[in-house]
Specification:
Number of strands: 0
Distance between the termini: 9 Å
Strand content: under 5%
Mean pLDDT: 98
Largest sheet: none
Length: 260
Amino acid sequence: MLYGAIIGDIAGSRFEFDNYRKKDFELFSKNCFFTDDTVMTLAVAKALMNCAGDYSALSEMTAKTMREVGRHYPDCGYGGRFNMWMFSNTMPAYHSFGNGSAMRVSAVAYAATSREEVKELSRAVTCVTHDHPEGIKGAEATALLTYDALHGASMKELRATAESYYDLNFTIDEIRPTYRFNETCQDTVPQALQAFFEAKSFEDAIRTAVSVGGDSDTLAAITGGIAEAYFGVPEDMKVKAESYLDARLLKILKEFNRTR
């Protein structure tokens, strides 16, 4: 659990500002690294664990945990306003619709016990920073598709759910030549979802997402979270991903997997 988002983040990290629009790249390179996508995915997971099944104060716990975990990694790639929020003890949500809400939400799908609870928990972990409707929508769509994939939904059923949130009338081949860096949910999540729908395996999903270009690590993190739930992740890829994490992040990942 959570390996999909982490692997997508690591694989896409070196291409975020130097896009590579093919699928024939080395997945785990010496130049790869974890970014804020991994840090915040694990911070949300820790918040869910800290609630011990009582999610009535999840938003407050998420804000606390994201700051506690995130401040250890000041140079991991936070956006400007999120960085201000991270290092403030009082700054409220700032009406963001950035794609950070979708890249960090994977753990919700493993904590929820129903589709309705997915939506509730997704909103709770999102609204602490991304309280714009598009930010909430991007996280909810990602979390819900991950949950549905975990619970046996077919590709056709998953696509129908995705299309209730976004217009997906394009292919990756069509958009790849012209797609550019974009940090919004509305211009990242649909592309990440389409990369998943075109994939034949978990690895193919990651390669397809990275090849889109743009915000490569975040695109692949979003795609990877859903792809893990649908395809599973090969054990050797999990082990390789763990080698990029430090002891603090690895501990959160291992603990979350033990509690699910």
